Amino acid sequence: VIAHMSQAHPLNVTKEHCHKFSQLFDADSNGVISRDEFIDFVRVGYAVAWIEEEMRKEREREEAQRSQEEENDVDKVLQALEQGRRQFEGAADSLPGWMHEL
Questions:
Q1: Which residues of 16-34 are buried (b: 16+ CB within 10 A; e: fewer)?
Q2: DSSP symbol at 30
Q3: Is 31 left (phi over 0), alpha (psi -120 to 50) or beta?
Q4: What mean pLDDT is predicted for residues 20-49?
Q5: Is the pLDDT assigned to residue 86 strictly greater than 90?
Q6: How many Cβ atoms sit within 10 Å of the Cβ of residue 41?
Q7: How does 60-86 read in b/e, with b if 16+ C-beta sit within 10 Å?
Q8: Of 20, 57, 66, 93, which one is least surrounded by beta carbons within 10 A?
Q9: pLDDT tens string 64-83
Q10: What is the pLDDT of residue 47?
């Protein structure tokens, strides 16, 4: 169960990991996960999975918002450049001669 939930290789799950796991859900400390204790484990597992999914969705929403804001920033820069170019073209005749040579 621990290896599956952590997506770790089973050989990387130690006896200490298993002991910690059993302590989390062995409410009566008899060394056995009873049916009721297992049901508590499943409930906690579902709750954790739901919370993680909600957090993932929130991260995706935030990323989409950042992406949209960046796209808006690019649009603003392009608009400013376009406006600057029109202003430059309108004032080009009044610029010093040396600037025309550039």
A1: eeeeebeeebbeeeeeebe
A2: S
A3: left
A4: 92
A5: no
A6: 16
A7: eeeeeeeeeeeeeeeeeeeeeeeeeee
A8: 93
A9: 999 999 999 999 999 999 99
A10: 95
In 10 A of CB 2, how many CB atoms?
Answer: 14
Strand, coil or helix: 62: helix
pTM for this entry: 0.59
Residue 30 identity (one-letter amino acid): N
Residue 99 tokens read as 């600037």
Residue 49 and residue 40: Cα distance in Å, rounded? 14
Give dist(CA 100, CA 25) in Å, integer: 80
Q: Hey, what are 24's tokens?
A: 């989390």
Percent above pLDDT 90 for the chain: 64
